[in-house]
Amino acid sequence: MFCENAVHVLPQTNQLLSLHLQIRDKTTSQEDFIYYSDQVIRLLLEAGINLLPFRSQSVVTPIGETFEGLELATDVCAVSVIRAGESMETELRSVFAGIPLGKILVQRDKETKLATYSYSNLPEDIASRHVLLLEPMLATGGSAIEALNVLLEHGVKEENIIFINLLASPDGIKRITEAYPKLRIVTSSIEKRMNEHAFMVPGIGDFGDRYFGTQDSGAR
Questions:
Q1: Which residues make beta-bridge pairs with 186?
Q2: Active-site residues: which are they?
Q3: Which pairing describes strands 161-168 and 184-190: parallel, antiparallel, or unpaired?
Q4: Each residue of 102-112: pLDDT tens digit?
Q5: From CA 43, how far away is CA 30, in angstroms rounded?
Q6: For 152-186, what is each residue's pLDDT tens digit?
Q7: Is 141 left (phi over 0), alpha (psi -120 to 50) or beta?
């Protein structure tokens, strides 16, 4: 259905499944939803960073011995898709201090489900960087395509983009990987399908509403 080399799913460990149990529960409070979501986001970011290019480097330890390790071999920035993508910024800064951060606004019509690009603010040198694109939900793929097109129009190489999301639908993955075969996707779950309202099944409801507390969508 899609290129497995392009899609990196987090190992379905007991820890991850217990976190998913909490964030998928419609009765989970906003406070707990944020707490458990942040833990999944951190795992996703660490997995995404692991896909970046590294090079060998050595240091001398306090006892005079040499340790052979790795250091990043590229400049990196992150771009969050407003608004839900901004939920990933706090954990991003905790695992990657000082990383430049850009924004893209894509507005989605609730009736037609169509996404339209509205605004972006990106690092001036983004074309020379690897980019972590942050968007928690990959459902139809419409918003992601709009955001990806903005990055490509600003000179970012397709193979230098790592798209990080919590949940992804099979249709969304297929659409994205067919349009951008060199892109890599990191997700914590590939869902069964989408329902008639374009919500993923079993899903999580409206992630942005639940994370930011703007609407009581826990019952969705």
A1: 8, 164
A2: 108, 112, 206, 209
A3: parallel
A4: 999 998 776 76
A5: 20
A6: 999 999 999 999 999 999 999 999 999 999 999 99
A7: left
